[in-house]
Amino acid sequence: MHLIIHRGAKEIGGSCVELAAGSSRILIDFGLPLVDKDQQPFNSRSIKGQTIPQLKASGILPPIEGLYRGETRQIDAILLSHSHLDHYGLLSYVLPDIPIYMSQGSKELIEISDIFVPTKVGNLNAKVIDLRKALVIGSFKVRPFLVDHSAFDALAYQVEADGKKIFYTGDFRAHGRKRILFDRIIKNPPKNIDCLLMEGSMLGRSETLSHNEEYVQKDFEILLKQTDNIVFLSASSQNIDRLVSAYKACINTGRILVLDVYTAFILDRLRKISKGIPQFNWKNVRVKFMKYHNECLVKAGLKELLFKYAKSKIEMHEINQERKKILMLLRDNSVFDRIIEHIPAVKGAKLIFSMWEEYLKDEFKQKCANYGIEIVHLHTSGHAFPQDLKKFVQALKPKKLVPIHTFFPNDYQQFGKMVEMVPDEQPLII
């Protein structure tokens, strides 16, 4: 079996791995970069309007023959680990007849993102994986594993061909609400792994974080009890674990969780996969309508949902009236100022920033300071801590361990002598 990391050997984001066996070729993930060649944040708008040859020449699209629109197909399938743009964001350039395998949750979230988010991938030849059985694609036998990650319904993959096995972790952790998935793999690990492709996003970081998602919830509760004003929550609407933490904290402190229509729609769509996800019509939940979200649903032919969510609608005068009991989802975007300016007594409020600290921009810090809003960083990572990465390696006992999805590949040396650095675009024979 031949393996090529097209991107990810020494960076986080833009993940893409190619496997070849016999006459079969598959990819695992096909994401947007997070950084450019100068290690600055990648501007996805910069590639709008560029042709596939231009994007290949600039290195944005990997040099994979038979993958792109207008080419003769040579790729059998793409396996998608989860619904973060750095793992799926370049799929719009792929030949439309190439099947893309993913979990049900990933399919739902990608479709939702295409309704609301500017970076769109369009209609995909999406195939939902049956998690109960192996998948055969040409010469490959693929076994999916549900993993704990900040992306809902994330998968790892064991891929077998030519008598060899590779295990691709995707993004994973051991400290979320689904950490039992990590424990199951550790207790009953895949056997005879020839090559482990393991993410290492947390290597080299000194970020101060809560120990796990339960600690995040407890920290939320402490802050909500101590604050005699409205509290805002800046978090991803697709981080379902974090929304569950916010909801439980509201229940335990008597607060009202105010969602936007986008978030209410996400939770509504995922209800068929997990009935334990908070819903717009649950106790202590209200929905604030925003013009942009309303327009997105109308454009998608889903206007009837606005009437559905209106049953829990909350207006600004109610938010002001009950501001000391409100936890409101509000991010650094175009509506932030409009909301804040309609809350006369906002001075002394707090904003929980519950994302990676690099997303907290100086301009937003200054804006909050000008309004008299204190920012409090309460977060835990979507990625495994180094001690859990070590447990994973010890459990799987791979013959080779190849770094991927990391800015610090040299830090993998702590995991043992089986570590092999494989640069981007350099083939590896397994």
Give a description of the structure.
The protein is α/β, with parallel strands linked by helices. The chain has two domains: 252 residues, 4-Layer Sandwich (Metallo-beta-lactamase, Chain A), CATH 3.60.15; 165 residues, Rossmann fold (3-Layer(aba) Sandwich). Helix content is 27%, strand content 20%. It is built from 13 helices and 19 strands. The strands form three sheets. The protein has a seven-stranded mixed beta sheet with strand order 6-5-4-3-2-1-19. Strand 2 and strand 3 form a beta hairpin. Helix 5 crosses helix 6. The radius of gyration is 22 Å and the shape is globular. The mean pLDDT is 96.
- Can you tell me the CATH superfamily of the largest domain? Ribonuclease Z/Hydroxyacylglutathione hydrolase-like
Using the CA coordinates, give the radius of gyration.
Answer: 22 Å
CATH class of the largest domain: Alpha Beta
Total domain units: 2
The helix/strand class is: alpha/beta
Would you report the number of β strands? 19
Number of helical segments with 4 or more residues: 13
Query: In the CATH classification, which architecture of the largest domain applies?
Result: 4-Layer Sandwich
Q: What's the CATH topology label of the largest domain?
A: Metallo-beta-lactamase, Chain A
Shape: globular
Gap between N and C termini = 5 Å
Which runs of at least 5 residues are low in confidence (pLDDT < 50)? none
Strand order, main sheet: write it out: 6-5-4-3-2-1-19
Beta content comes to: 15-25%
How is the main sheet built? Answer: 7 strands, mixed
